[in-house]
Amino acid sequence: MTEFPQNGQVYTLQSQSGTVADVSSSSTASCNRIQAWQPNGSKAQTWVFWAKENGTWLLETGLTKGTHGPGQAMVMDFNYNAFNTHLFQEHGNDNQRWYVEDAGDGWVRLKTARGDGYLTADRVGSALGVWQLDPNGSGQRWKLLPVAGGTGNSGGGQRPQPQPQPQPQPSGGGDIEGQVIALVNAYRQRRGLAQLQYDGRLTPAATASSREQARRHEQGHWVAIGDEFSRAGYRWGGFGEVAGGAPIWKNPPEMVQAWIDHPPHDEILRGDFRAAGAARAYAGDGTPYWSMVFARPM
């Protein structure tokens, strides 16, 4: 009988090829690799399934189970730039949600909610990939093995009804935007500062700024952020922006860390703001340019 997840239940994910989904070196650091590994019974090989909207599931590593506030778990995140998986702080966007499909004979497949890819185990030690469906591929067929003492009931072959779960702190609309804001919020939390709330009215300003930097192929503040906020209907009492662009800042963790390491940008990250938006654009040669905008309402 096929085991389907129950809300809040802890499972080991074992592929038909015999490997399991494992957090490399048991580290909960952001962007740490999720890999295929031999079963060893550690917490790094356990996953908590949380029911989300539209029949999707959020997969939290057992390493952070019960150790965090709502929206602060480290979860299985589809890194769509590299077609593989890593840990990332929960933000609830499509690349962190998974469909569980019956693959027959007691097996399931896990399909990302962002596109058509399926969780795929390759050789031992390699990152779990997200690839197109291979109907005969053993690396895409998984069993959910309940962990003794895990919360909830065993699946018993019945599809569960989603139950209310702690939701992520608002962190953004698009995947990149959500990741940037989640990382900055994690930094602000460590400094004892208020969390920023995503506001879609701020996104056009960040988008305009990142695109103008990319057009000029030059980092800078070329857009009147306050005017963009006003055009979008946001009544602001104060605002700020951090910007950046270089080939070495190719993903959110690298860009956010660069801002933290630069005192003028860090001062803005720690500023007295309540809302944020973020965006990334590319120059013709592929260099990424970033903007994160902040606002304090009137």
Automatic annotation (TrEMBL):
What the entry lists under InterPro entries is as follows: CAP_dom, CAP_sf, Ricin_B-like_lectins
**Disordered as annotated region, ranges:** 142-176
Q: What is the lineage of its organism?
A: Bacteria, Bacillati, Actinomycetota, Actinomycetes, Kitasatosporales
- Where does this protein have compositionally biased stretches of type Gly residues? 149-158
Source organism, top-level taxon:
Bacteria
Q: What is this protein called?
A: SCP domain-containing protein
Using the record's annotation, list all stretches that form the SCP domain: 182-294
Cited Pfam families? CAP (PF00188)
